[in-house]
Amino acid sequence: MSTQEELTETTIDGPKTRRWLVESSECAELRSHRIARLGMDEALPPYRRVRMKPEGSFVLACVSGAGKILLDGKWQRVKPGMICLAPPRVLNAFEATGRERWCFAWIRYDEPAFVIPVVGASSPVVPTSEAGGVARLISGIRSEWEGEREPRMLHHWLELLHASIRRIAQPWRSREPRVAKLWADAMQDLARDWTLAELAHRCHCSPEHLRRLCLRELGRSPMQHLTCLRMEKARLLLEAGDDKLEVVAAQVGYANGAIFSRVFRRWVGVAPGEYRGRGS
What we know:
By secondary structure, the protein is of the alpha+beta class. It is 40% helix and 20% strand. Helix 2 (131-146) packs antiparallel against helix 3, helix 5 crosses helix 6 and helix 8 crosses helix 9.
C-alpha cells in the first residue's frame, strides 16, 4: 500500500491474528458514549484495515510491537507507547509490519455528521500521552465483559475511558492558552493567506518556538496543522452545501480549485467531488 490511489475498503486479519472486541449491538453501555466498538488486537501480516470514510473518530493505543498507520495523508510508524487519533469521515488505514506481534487497543466511535466528534481538527495526530492508560482501561472493560458483565461497572469503566480520550484529544485546554487562541483565531479566518511568520507573531513567539510547540503537542508543524484545519472546514462545507469547488477552495484559503482538490485528496483520501457524492 504505497500510495493512496491503491487503497480500497479492506478488512484482512490473516491466520495468525488474535482479536478481542465488543460491539455496541452487544453492549448498551457503549451506545451511551457513541462508541461503535472497541477491542484489543495482536496482529501479524497480512493484517490490514482500510476505512475510506469511517463514521466516527478512531483511537489506537500501541502496547508492543510496531505497525503503520495513515494519518494526515502520510504513512507513519506506530511504536509502543504511542497513541494515534483519526477524525471521522477521513481516510483511515493501518497495517501490521514485521515479525513481532503488533499489540494495540482501539476504539471506534459512531458519530453522524450532526455530532461534534471526539477527534477533530484541533486534536493532535500523535499525542504525547502514553498509550498504557488507554490500554489498561480497555483491559478493565474486557475483564468485566468476560466476567460479571455488570452494567454499572461497565458504565464506570467506559466513563473513565471516554473522559481520558477527550482529554487526550484536547491538548490546549489547560496548556499553552496563547497557542489555543492562535488556532481559534486562525479557524475563524481560514481564507487568509497565513504564513508561519504571521502565525508566530500572533502567538508572540518565534517561528521556531511555535514549530516546537506544535510538534510536541500536535505531532504536526504549524503549517501542517493549518492544512488540517482547512481540510476539516472544507469537509463540513462539502457536506452541508453545493457550492462550486472554487468557492469552497477560496473559503479555506486556496487560490484555485485544482490546488485545493490535490491537497484535499491527499489529506482526506478522495477527491472533493467524490467526497460530496458519498453524502454524510
